[in-house]
Amino acid sequence: MRAAILREYGEPLAVREVPAPEPAPDGAVVSVDACGVCRSDWHAWAGHGEWADDRVPRGQVLGHEPAGEVVAVGGEVDRFRPGDRVVVPFSLGDGTCPHCRRGAGNVCEDGRALGFEPAAPGAFAERVAVPAADYNLVERPEWLDATAAAALGCRYMTAYHALAERTAVGGGDAVAVHGCGGVGLSAVQIAAALGARVIAVDVDDDALDLAREFGAAETVTPESLPAESSVPERIRALTDGGADVSLDALGIAETCRNSVRSLRPRGTHVQVGLTTNAERGEVSLPTDWMTRWEISFVGSRGMPPTSYPDLFALVEATGIDPGALVARELSLGEVSDRLAAMNEYDVRGVEVVTDFEG
User: Fold this and answer.
1) Closest Cα to residue 348, out of 220, 214, 219?
2) Cβ-contact 115, 62 below 8 angstroms
3) Of 12, 79, 227, 246, which sits with the fewest C-beta atoms within 10 Å of its C-beta?
4) Which tens digit of pLDDT belongs to each residue from 6-39?
5) What whole-number distance in Å separates Cα of residue 52 and Cα of residue 110?
């Protein structure tokens, strides 16, 4: 089968033939119909993460947002059969640890990250293996096509977990979203669907146009602010004192600190974006100020497989369209160029591989 492999950091991926996977006794193999290209793939491609002992090794098949169809299952699998339409979460739990049993498989003690480690080759490939299939695979509703499901695969479900589960955003809350790439736009759409008033922040006018289209009530461009003003001050003015929840979707020091400073007393910052070489996993914060105003700082990563039914229910009940986030469909051979474009933040919305032969 064809797959895109990390050969050298920052260099084009090698697209070549590799052996197709076989299912483990408790696993399944999925034929990939669509797979999103995410900023987390860019972090892996760029060689980030060594500061957290999390650098993706060369030789890895990348890709972690797949949707497709089951083509083979191991003898221990009960819930799935060939022909089932599925989504594959990137946070793969073992299904047995205390966290998995409590519905938090995204922090499984023995979990694997699809596309980021040798034990879990990724989905920039015609087929992908899924361990512990009865726990990790998610049945795809009839109304959800593979391309839209790939848009759900990481950024959308990450935004849902961050806002609906980690911070419990509700009707009337003011939510600030810093960075309107794929996960940021997903957060805008989900927060609006949850009844929040959304303020979107980005340096790019086109990204903010999309944010308004997806439900942002207000937008903020740092460059357009008066010299004596700042992003946190503008958000506090727009929200009569600060956001209830503020989400950093980018991961650079400036957006993280702006997000924290944008909050009202007892507000909650949620960190979704991962840092780059500039921060190397560390960002200084106004901790005395946070203590004075009882600010909460929450990390959020992916989403447990067990939360998908709730996410599907929200999408179906509100009519929000994750497929509307898809700005471009790609061939496997185009992935390297699109990763390189992320060096300059030159990507709008969500891009999805749907052609695995080109």
Assistant:
1) 214
2) yes
3) 227
4) 999 999 999 999 999 999 999 999 999 999 998 8
5) 17
Question: Per-residue pLDDT tens for 287-321?
Answer: 999 999 999 999 999 999 999 999 999 999 999 88
**Torsional class of 244: left (φ above 0), alpha (ψ -120 to 50), beta (otherwise):** alpha
Distance (Å, whole) CA 190 – CA 274: 20
Give the per-residue pLDDT at 345.
Answer: 75
Distance CA 213, CA 230 (A): 24
3-state secondary structure at position 76: coil
Angle at 40 between CA 235 and CA 45, to 5 degrees: 135
Token reading at 142: 């009839």
CA angle 287, 292, 227 (to 5 degrees): 70
Contact 119, 102 (CB under 8 A): no
Q: Phi/psi of residue 211, each to 5°?
A: -60, -40
Identify which of 305, 171, 314 has the alpha carbon closest to the alpha carbon of residue 245: 171
Note the pTM of the prediction, 2 decimals: 0.92
